Protein 1
Amino acid sequence: MLTSIKTNSFTNEGQRLGMMYYRVAVILFGAQLLMGLIAAIQFLVPGFLFEIFDFSVARMVHINALVVWMLYAMIGSVYMMITDETGLETINIGLGKIAFWILTVAVTIVVLVYIFVQVGAGTEESIWLIHEGREYIEAPRWADIGIVVVVLIFYWNVFATYIKGTQTGIMTVMVANLLALAGLYLAGMFFTDNISMDQFWWWWVIHLWVEATWEVFVGTLAAYALIRLIGAKREIVEMWLWIEVLMLFGSGILGMGHHYFWIGTPEYWWEIGALFSALEPVPLIAMFVHVLYDWGKEQGAAHARGETASVITNGPAMAWIVTNAFGNFLGAGIWGFFHTLPQVNIYTHGTQFTAAHGHLAFFGAYATILIGMMYYGVQKANGIERMKMTFKTKMGIFLITFGVMGMTIALTIAGYEQVLVERAELGATWNGFFVAQELAWYVQAQTWRTVMGVVTLIGFVYLVWDLLTIGKKTQEVEA
Amino acid sequence: MIDAFTDVVPSFFGMLNQGPMTLTIFLHTVIILPMFWIYKQEKAKLEGK
Amino acid sequence: MANENLSVWTSIPFWRRSAAWVTGFASILLIWLTFDTLGQISMGTDEDLKAGTIKRVPAPTVINYNIDYQMSKKRGHEVPIIGAKEPFFGKEWSVEEAAELLHLGKLTSQSKNCMNCHTLLGNGAYFAPDLTKAWLDPMWSDKGPMMPMTGKSTREEAMAEFLINPSQYPTHARMMPNLGITADEAKGLVAFLKHMSSIDTNGFPRNFSKTAEQFKLGVSHAH
């Protein structure tokens, strides 16, 4: 079974390294789901692993594994496409491989410290060695510096190859966007006693990643994938890409204002955050239209030429990318817009509404397309011409999507109850919080969330099983 | 229509924030207006060829 | 060849230039706004507090003052009110002492990972109560249950005692775990919470003061 990921017919070293990143990404994805499940159970059974493996630890590993597996899959995807786009072998790929191992060893140590050390004393050493205690970017300072070094090596690989090779529009956006993405991480690497200042810069990393640079990254990947998977025309894809960059950065950069409503920052952010971030769904609609339009157009052109076969050369990857088009708009766009206006956000800020949005947005906008790219990697690894969906592919995509949608709806209901009872009625006091948490409707919602989490986990098992076997199976069919 | 300044510290952006959406509409306008100029230039280029 | 049929709307250079302009200009605006905001959210000084100058984020010595959270007609939402001086852990803290205590408290809040259960200024996890105005929570007032439960006579001492041994003072089935917080760290954390409650959060959380008022009058939603 495992032979299918070992035998590979990659035509360049970049793709081989990309596949190494994908493997670690899948393992971390699994860790993320397990930790999420523990945290979900702790909502229902408060004594579960109490003072052994507390919610704060499970939650920290849950969200860190998420961020790190996505970054791994993103780096992997860049290596996957770099030779195709530039027409060159990745420059200094050997250095890139060393960086991969350094990063992987560092990530392993960080996770082990999270799990076994958990908390430290209130000293600078804890921030340097254990974790920084800042949601999403908890990595201790030593690891921060390590990440910067590894990312610089990765960036050198990409930049040097880009400069020497063919400079396509896709790669131009990729290179510029990656520089911003990597540079923004520096904004999260200092300590301050001022909590308002702390959160101000914290959002520079988190928001400008997930609502600006990561979204542009997804646009770039989708552009590349459409050319590769359905033979879309480069001129059309690249025109759409520039439109997406325009709208994503136009709304996303100042859309940052919606995080500056209540952290001590001036009132003028209300207006800036409201309208700019309200426009954030617009590019997501554009991306959605673009994917489906190109698919229909290419298929129509093929029919006109008298071809009967599908234009899709990789069924599973295309299925995940179409899921991305829907999921990005629904999760990031609609669920984000739900609570982006200050008039609404003053009540929803810091409730399960945010968790609902977070689950569907990270899944819809990022997990989907990155999984799609992994299938593309499997196709290349096995030198397959046309890869079709298997039963396991379908089970994976259905169960994961259904599970995440279910969790999102459950959390939205929980959030709605929390907003009305805890926030509107009881004013966010300690007592108000627990009254809302213990209400039957809230508990029911959390129960459904846990059930749907299990569904997601089963879907994940199918996904991994499929990724491990689909290549071999397709090879046999072709032979 | 024009509200009195209410925020803690007066500032340039605070001053522009003078009631319903004044600040954000102003910012959107200054971002979008130059695109007309880019449009005209590109149109001239296309027609000139 | 005349290109009359070509539209600017499908021209890559038009979209590329527009994308570059919008991205560049939005970034410049964000940087400008950042400078403006940083000036407004940097901590005030002890002199500001003495002179009664309102700062969005007051100096660490704000722990020497009574803090309240009241509806402001002018602002249209609740704002922190810094009142008369009151002792904090039985004394008045000098500028240096207060800064040091807040530093310890902020460090502890990160190293104990508060944010992955609680929310601070509304950001974090959603497993435990929001801490933005925790200092002002009626649970810790002289009418609330926590002072008698911990056997302490002041708000700050009750909070510190709870933080040192949280699972000894359960209020609900969902409890705070023991995180090995020392007596000094607990003092620091309480200072951090008191300081956070003095930050002007533009009225977040809304309704908090109304509920706190009801609680004082004996109207409770507790089971």
Protein 2
Amino acid sequence: MITHHLSDRLLMAYSAGNLPEAFNLVIASHIALCDECRARLASFDAIGGAMLEQMPETGQALPDSALAATLARIKTTPVAAKPAPRPAQSRVLPEPLASYVGGDIDAIRWRGIGGGVRQAILPTSKAATARMLFIPAGKAVPDHGHNGLEMTLVLQGAFADATARFGRGDIEIADEDLDHQPIAEPGEDCICLAVTDAPLKFRALLPRLAQPFLRI
Amino acid sequence: MQTRNGAEWIALLKQVAEAQDTEAFTALFQHFAPRIKAFLVKSGADPAMAEEVAQDVMVTVWNKAAQFDPSRASVATWIFTIARNRRIDMLRRDRRPEPEELFWGPEEEPDQLQLLALQQESDQLIAAIADLPEKQRVMIERAYFSDLSHSEIAEETGLPLGTIKSRIRLALERLRHSLS
């Protein structure tokens, strides 16, 4: 049962297509797991549709040649058949995340960053950073604050910090005001997708020195 | 120009999907192509490029007509999502990966009552947005069509979400119900 969802503002910006790639990735991955946010996204898309519908068309008419040109193009373009629905696969990583990783969790190329915690940076545009995080059961991520926005989506296991508990599908949205130390629950190792638009502020000196090299 | 409601657009798109009907397509083109162009011009495209891309979007409408599902979106909303994706390519914006599709089961016929409800709600939403005070409408327009950075969005720019949300609440509940 997912209890931590996307905010309206993030859903609207995703619907509009105005976010950095890494944020789009974490939002799409949450929606793949969360029917409620999928339904809410449909509502924000509907606002986009309503805005399109009431665009002023005056002065934007296309010349008659445009319709003719388009009709000529579609004459050579067959109407595509309806794609067959694919049954959902039972994987830890939903699409689009699986494509970014290149498979399921066994395809992730981890690097240790201390304390048993591992990470893997995913290829996205530079505007924000997406990384997979592996937190061994019962272990903690170094205590940190944030310079910008951080979104963390749980894919396996669970973690808790001072604010709440986050399980599979839950997404934590943290900003400048939150200092937190996420701790993985005992039992199962915790795997998350964490996205940041600014370097995290680590409390302890050692992680701070390591920060430029680890790209956290 | 005569305006059509949601159900009429759905019927025209169905004609395109099932009979490759160019007359139905022409009606869709004449209504939506200028709006797509206006949307792209507002997003910063020059008019010639906006026209070119509006034609691309309409070719996609033809090509993907059979994939349109009236139980999930209005025609305007579906065309908006195509135009949005082309706008991202055109302006070389960041990639926007999509969530994997739900598995909807083998060729289930959508419930006619639900279909009707979705169409009515879409028509009401269009009316509700048209009725917003100019200032609020412009805020939403900026969020969708121009470059409202996410830090600006995070700063609570006075988006009148409450006003609109009350109008889409029913649509939301229905969608949740159909997804559960």
